[in-house]
Specification:
Two copies of one chain form a homodimer.
Chain A: H1 4-22, E1 27-28, H2 30-37, H3 41-50, E2 61-62, H4 63-74, E3 80-85, H5 89-96, H6 99-102, E4 105-112, E5 121-122, E6 125-129, H7 133-139, E7 144-147, H8 151-163, E8 168-171, E9 184-187, H9 191-202
Parallel strand pairs in A: 3-4, 3-7, 4-6, 7-8, 8-9
Antiparallel strand pairs in A: 1-2, 5-6
One nicotinamide-adenine-dinucleotide sits at the interface of chains B and A.
């Protein structure tokens, strides 16, 4: 399995190329792109060549071309349909986060157990009762399940997603989800961001 | 400046060591730790030696000792006090996220402009009107500001934090914040997590 940190670097290269494209740039050398991303250029060339040759030595990379190449590697050149489990604070922040649909990640439905939330619509997404997952998926197929329930409900909700042939899970609840090998689970831990901030703050003095 | 990806790796090593400690492990070799984190062991040794020698060659690392060493490097062996700007969906999810105080990141106050939210208390944190920031900081000093406002208010709120001598900002709003060099700004982009999930899902077939 390709390590998570390699994929993180690919996503970082893509973000940096998007920013350069917005600034009107066309070409970039591997040295400059590596510097912008904070990696060494040998690592960058190794990452890019791992997935097939790209760019002409000496001339540098075409920014739109390289971005397209990396998006194809990441699988973000297409749309992914998702269901949200738990439409509480974090869930609603995700439903409102306009960057997700812009990047091709679209919620087709949300699920909860709280009677007060069921039947509401947020950003065109309807909140169903969690018991309705299987028949909703028949109407609106999805490949990704996002878990934003309390930790106590996370495993039960994950089992339900897996039973309904969902193959990818993004888990925000602070528990490790047990799952079969043919299901991909990514865990979100926002505290890594806070650690990064602490690291730089400590060095400010 | 030390690249963000290096700090990300240090935080990853710390998370992995915490997990191993929970599983009752004491010792680990650099090869095994590197494998668990998905980096090569030369990179791991380089990262650790950059911040001072640690561990005995051949014997491996003491897990509690190495964790303490990395926490000192990251600056997470101490408490950090924070203020939240924008107590909406994402803001309230952060106020309720019990992992933050567990890791020493504590909110002392929250701020908003919505009359319906002002005066409420969430997880022992009082929501003030944003105009009260300076006198609240005199009562409850803080070093970190977390921005969870709409993008339209993010720069104005960042300026207010900087005026009030806040040196570290974690920005969740999808805009680039302008700031002086002596203030650290980290931006959160959850979509990188979704990219990682797409990458692994694409390869499942
Ligand atoms: N990983 C991170 O970075 C991060 C950050 C903040 C919060 N969190 C976590 O995200 C989760 C949600 O946090 P929140 O603040 O939105 O909590 P919340 O209580 O506001 O929302 C949880 C929602 O889940 C619903 N729910 C409960 N059981 C359910 C079930 N079986 N099926 C479907 N829905 C169910 C509840 O009715 C509620 O609406 C928590 O586990 C929290 O620890 C993670
Ligand atoms: N980076 C990420 O990964 C991520 C994920 C989800 C949402 N977001 C972003 O987080 C932000 C908040 O999202 P949300 O769903 O919680 O929105 P929300 O509308 O529920 O919350 C925003 C809050 O900010 C308050 N506010 C407005 N102007 C303010 C000001 N000048 N000072 C203080 N408070 C002010 C509002 O009254 C409201 O309570 C948005 O910018 C959204 O794009 C980021």
């Amino acid at each position: 399995k390709i390590p998570g940190i390699t994929v993180y670097r690919l996503a970082l290269y893509a973000r940096t190329l998007e920013k350069l494209l917005e600034e009107g740039r066309d070409l970039i050398s591997s040295e400059e792109l590596a510097r912008e991303c904070g990696v060494n250029s040998a690592q960058l060339r190794k990452d890019l060549s791992y997935f097939g040759q790209f760019g002409v030595r000496g001339v540098g990379y075409s920014i739109p071309g390289l971005l397209k190449h990396i998006r194809r590697i990441l699988g973000t050149e297409r749309e992914w349909f998702m269901v949200l489990m738990g439409a509480g604070h974090l869930g609603q922040a995700l439903l409102n986060y306009e960057f997700l649909p812009k990047r091709g990640f679209k919620f087709v439905a949300a699920f909860d157990v709280d009677e007060e939330k069921i039947g509401r619509v947020i950003n065109d997404v309807y909140i169903y009762h969690v018991n309705q997952l299987s028949w909703v998926l028949r109407e609106h197929p999805a490949e990704i399940g996002v878990i934003a329930t309390p930790a106590s409900a996370a495993q039960e909700v994950a089992d339900l997603l897996i039973e309904n042939k969902i193959k990818g899970i993004l888990n925000f609840a602070p528990v490790r989800i047990k799952h079969p090998p043919n299901v991909v689970v990514e865990n979100s831990d926002l505290t890594i961001l806070f650690d990064k901030l602490a690291f730089y703050l400590k060095r400010l003095d």
